[in-house]
Every structure is written in C-alpha cells, then in structure tokens.
Amino acid sequence: MAHIRGYNYIASLESVFEEMSSYSLRRVQLTGRSTYIVSLPKSWAELIKLKPGDYVQLIPQPDNSLLLIPRQRREMPSEALIEASADDLPEEVARELIACYLAGYDTIKIVFRRRVDEFKSYLKNLMRTKLIGLESVEESADYMVIRCLMGHVDFPIRDALNRVHVMTLSMLKDAVKALRKRDHFLVNDIIQRDDEVDRLYLFCVRQLKAAIENAIIMREVGLKNPRECLGYRLIVKSVERIADHAAGIASQIPLLKLRGSPQIVDEVIKLGEKVSELYERAMNSVFKSDVKQANKLILDVENFVKFEDAILKRLFELRLNTETLIGLRMMIESIRRIAEYSADIAEIVINLGVKS
User: Fold this and answer.
1) How far apart are CA 272 and CA 18, in angstroms?
2) Do 192 and 308 have their domain in common?
3) Does 144 share its domain with 276?
4) Which residue segment(s) compose the domain that 115 sits in?
5) Does 38 share its domain with 99?
6) What is the CATH number of the domain that holds 269?
7) Residues whose CB falls within 8 Å of the CB of residue 27, separated by 6 or more in sequence, listed in order
8) What is the pTM of this model?
9) What digits encode the pLDDT tens for the residues 301-319?
10) Which long-range contacts (CB under 8 A, 24 or more apart) does 41-47 make?
C-alpha cells in the first residue's frame, strides 16, 4: 500500500496546537478605561514570525468568535510525499493522489519502486481526465513531482458549481434526446462528458475542504460560513450523482431491442423531460436562494414519484425481451433517483435559508 507523508507548516502548526492545549484559556484584562487585552501564545507567534509592533486583523464571525489574521500573512506551500511500494497497483497510487488533491496539497511528490513508465502513464491520464489544475513539473527515473497550478480565487465555488450544473443538465437533456432518436453517437458523447463533471466535482470538493478549514480561503471562494460550505458540499455531490445517472440512462439505450416507438418508451421520454425540469428548478433555487421555490419543488417531486410508480407497474405488464425490460427498468430507476436528488438539493436550500 502506498504511504503518504505530509510535511511542512501544517505539521509544525499541529505541534503548536498540542503545546497550546494545556494552557489555551487566557484571562481578559482591562487597560485604561476602554481597551480589553489578551495575550497571544508565544509558540504560535514565533511560528508565523509575528513580532512586537506588527499588526493583526480581527474579523467578527457569525458565531460571535473573532478571527485573528496576521497583517503580513505568509502563504506556506503544502507538500505531500507518496511512497509507492513494489507491490502497489497504479490504481492504489491513483487513489492516494486523489486523496492528497482533495486534502489541499499544492505539491505532491510520488516516489516509485518499480514499473515507473506504467505508473507515470496511468497517473498522467488520471490528472488529465479527473483532476483540474494538476501538472507534472519534475520527473526522473524513480519519481515525479506534481503541482496544483490553480489557486482558490481562480475559480470561485459558485462559478464551479454552475459549470457542473450546466454540464449535468445538458447530459440529462441529451440522454432523453438520444432515447427518442436512438442516437448511439450521442450516447458515447454523454458518457464521455461524465468525466468532465467528475473533474469539476473533485475540484469543488478540494475548494470546499480548504474553505471550511481556513476562513480567509472561505471568503476568497465566495462563501460566508462553514454551514454554507457544508451545504454546497452536499449540493455538488448530488449534482455529480445526477450526472452519473444521466450517463447511466444513456448507456442503456444501445441495449434496447424495440421495433418502432412503443408507448412505454414515449412515457419514459416524458419522465426524462419532466425530471430534467425538476432538476433545473432545484438548481435555480440554489442560485437564487429561493426557499419558496424549493418547497414547491419538493411537493412536485412527491407527485412525480407516484407517476413514475404507475409507469413502472405498466412496464412489468408488457411482454418485452429480458434485455429491453432490464434496460427500461434501469432508466426509470435512474430517473427516480434524479428526482430524489433534486428534492435533496431543495431541502438544502431550505436549510441554508434558515438564519442561525
């Protein structure tokens, strides 16, 4: 199994936290008649190179805490080391690389013990198809250094989420179109687009994880508080799952063995069109923070599921070959799941709309 080691400022900060844990309470004192003062831990001040006379910025937070930021804040590069053993598979190292990417490491060094060319080719393909911003910046016979070249402010989270949404919606609408026209070329295109959605999804997760751990990054990516970070994390996951189901619907189309256009297929097409509308409305409620629209959508999804149940019952009453029956059943199940994910998104909008 590949072994990951992260080292740098983060490790030093963790040791400071351990040291501070025994004396974290500080007494507030009054100077003069109007100024309250509190001392700062010396180990922390030394770690960030804070000196007497330097300025710090105090920012009130929604939970009534104060965020203290050194005026001359230094960005410390984060680096991880992945040591791939001789027994590791490329897939195992790839999962470790994704984990480091999501954890927010800017630089990742991978040391190989064998099959260097096989590993490098596999990981470069992974970076190209799944991980936004990663590039190989240094290589040798037994290692490669990968760096994330995209900063947090380069792609704000709402812009990234909107991009994921637009791509997912187009996949869903095109899946319905491909079913109507039995277009196998469009099917392949939809399935390939799912890789791009995955890239954006992983990038969003990286951004949100960094934001929830660092209030400055949170503001840079356009979010206000940790609760909003959590809400967006759940939303982007639902959107990614909807894209998976859109690709799943498309993948079943070549398996259908039907002559003409049976009524049951027309009904599945109408289901697909309706669920596309529900999903689009759910995301509109996100971008507009529209709680009223979100509440109405949840009721509409409940009615939609009842309609879907009736179509599913009629499907099993038809005499279709096994492959076609399974294909249509899988399509209807994916459509139902998309509707349920849309309702989940609407519920998050309602939760975020409640003031804490």
Assistant:
1) 54
2) yes
3) no
4) 1-149
5) yes
6) 1.20.58.220
7) 38
8) 0.79
9) 999 988 888 888 888 877 7
10) 41/16, 43/16, 43/19, 44/16, 44/20, 47/9, 47/12, 47/13, 47/16
